[in-house]
């Protein structure tokens, strides 16, 4: 694979995202995550997956420059739906998937992390959905998963201000399970992953399947509506301005059209 590296130890597959400088989520990287799930699904030597980002970040967001190659709102909605499908597969996967987050998990990076079964973070990691800063909305089910973890009011604050929260805050709000120092992140995550790997694979698969029943029909309806809205917002002048401002590293000037 071009962007993912897999190392296996005591039943745990550590899957490292390696797409410098920020591990931005391109369509190619998302497709590789899907292929990675194909490769480990029926491998009995792998019982737990740990997803980690090489370099400074877990993933600092979607590949915004890739957005400039999309020509229509319909195509943008399809891009959104394709990412949603992979992250839904991740969340409903029959083997536990743990996100080990350092540096930043922003935008699509946080949506990827929220698709994992749970999250371990560094104390100073930054987690957020800053898409509105670009005149866009989250497109990989972030609007539906974030409120499930932090509540509607906190999700609204994070979406509307675009301000991230720290790893310590993420634990307090229910978005992450544990926060450790940078040095402890991987050792502590691996310790937990190896403990889980000793459980019965049959029982784990059944337990993970049962957790999926906590999702209501409105969740799946909301995910579909998000993809549709993602495309609708993309064709606005504000979205064009937000994306261009991001590329030019300046503040956007939105006019409401």
TrEMBL record:
<comment type="similarity">
    <text>Belongs to the enoyl-CoA hydratase/isomerase family.</text>
</comment>
<dbReference type="GO" id="GO:0004300">
    <property type="term" value="F:enoyl-CoA hydratase activity"/>
</dbReference>
<keyword id="KW-0456">Lyase</keyword>
<dbReference type="InterPro" id="IPR018376">
    <property type="entry name" value="Enoyl-CoA_hyd/isom_CS"/>
</dbReference>
<protein>
    <submittedName>
        <fullName>Enoyl-CoA hydratase</fullName>
        <ecNumber>4.2.1.17</ecNumber>
    </submittedName>
</protein>
<dbReference type="InterPro" id="IPR001753">
    <property type="entry name" value="Enoyl-CoA_hydra/iso"/>
</dbReference>
<dbReference type="InterPro" id="IPR029045">
    <property type="entry name" value="ClpP/crotonase-like_dom_sf"/>
</dbReference>
<dbReference type="Pfam" id="PF00378">
    <property type="entry name" value="ECH_1"/>
</dbReference>
